[in-house]
Design goal:
The protein is mainly beta.
Length: about 375
């Protein structure tokens, strides 16, 4: 006999219902007192809230952290004249601004500051620090070591936007409109993926032995990026600064950067450095400034392209090794090279007509692999 179309679904429902009865627990609660299943506040939020009760301030601080631990803001805060916003006097502190803004007032001190020497292992992250009477974050004055500043926006402060100590890391930060340096770090620090714009002083100022990677410096009053002895600046940009785009001291490496529209030099370097594969365009003003300017000796300057600068390459002393560079369109001169350097410059040949197809063109004028070309 044929089955009804409802037979199989009916059997399935009956099976599921039986399974539900087998899996269901008792409807009556067990006898005896009901035990708490709630977590304590410290288990839900295992950090310490910044507050007058937990982190009371004193004569020079709105809040003060005196013990190691993890701290966080519960809302935006406003500074007070004559006081730091959050003062830290202990090592091993993490401070999470939790996305909130620390707003300074006239006459206030630093937004976040370490005020005793010898501190280390401090982290400040995730928030904005705006309008303080001194610096936004100041880890530099007391030489705070081995610390991290990340995801901070620090702007319109009366001194430095972010001042890091020794061996610090600054990552994913923005410093803008500060009345001194935007981002500054002492020796051995790492500055990465950060931007410094519209600051009165240098955009980024790095101490000896620092690494500056994937950063940008735009429209700063003294210059874009200043790197002291033994530093590395790579894959960064410095555009439209009132001074030089990148200033590298002795023993530095500047590689694969783009510098454009800076009032003085695109890249200026001292001695014993490597300047490699940079793009320098439209730097200098009037009769001064160059795409690349070496003021001393023992530099290797290789694979750079300079175009539309006042001077393309300006080399003040002998003893430099200058190879595989290209230069064009300088308003004063493409090559201004002192005696005693190792360099071959070739005026590159150009083709008479267009090329469309699989062959054509003219050799640039030299088969020497180290030749520099004017084009």
């Amino acid at each position: 006999m044929p089955r009804s179309p409802l037979t199989i679904p009916a059997l399935a429902c009956a099976t599921l219902a039986g399974a539900a009865l087998l899996l269901a627990g008792p409807l009556d609660p067990p006898s005896g007192p009901v035990g708490s299943t709630y977590k304590t506040l410290s288990e839900v939020e295992p950090r310490i809230a910044i507050s007058a009760a937990n982190t009371p301030g004193d004569a020079d601080s709105v809040f003060k952290i005196t013990e190691p631990g993890s701290y966080y803001l519960t809302g935006g805060m406003t500074g007070a004249a004559g006081k730091h916003g959050i003062e830290i006097i202990s090592s091993s502190v993490t401070l999470d601004l939790n996305g909130f803004t620390m707003q300074g007032v006239a006459g206030s001190l630093d937004g976040v500051s370490t005020t005793v020497s010898g501190l280390d292992n401090i982290e400040v992250r995730n928030g904005s620090i705006v309008g303080w009477g001194e610096s936004g974050i100041d880890f530099g004055y007391r030489l705070t070591r081995n610390s991290v500043i990340s995801d901070i926006r620090s702007g319109e402060n009366a001194q430095i936007g972010i001042s890091a100590g020794v061996g610090n890391t600054i990552a994913h930060c923005i410093a803008y409109g500060n009345l001194s340096t935007g981002i500054g770090a002492l020796g051995g620090s790492n500055i990465t993926d950060s931007a410094a714009n519209d600051n009165v002083g240098w955009g980024i100022r790095a101490g000896s032995g620092c690494v500056v990677t994937s950063c940008s410096a735009l429209l700063n009053g003294q210059g874009g990026i200043l790197a002291n002895d033994g530093s590395v600046v790579t894959q960064s940009t410095a555009n439209s600064n009132a001074g030089s785009g990148i200033f590298a001291a002795d023993g530095c490496t500047v590689g694969r950067c783009s510098v454009r529209d800076n009032t003085v030099d695109g890249i200026v370097v001292g001695s014993q450095s490597i300047i490699l594969e940079n793009t320098c365009t439209n730097n200098g003003s009037g009769s001064t400034g160059a795409g690349i300017h070496a003021t001393d000796l023992d530099n290797r300057i290789e694979g750079n392209n300079c175009s539309l600068n006042v001077r393309g390459f300006d080399i003040d002393r002998g003893g430099n090794f200058i190879v595989r560079n290209t230069c064009s369109g300088s308003t004063t001169v493409n090559w201004d090279i002192a005696a005693g350097n190792t360099i071959l410059i070739v005026n590159a040949a150009t083709i008479g007509g267009a090329i469309f197809g699989n062959s054509g063109g003219t050799p640039p004028g030299s088969t020497d692999p180290n030749a520099n070309f004017t084009y």
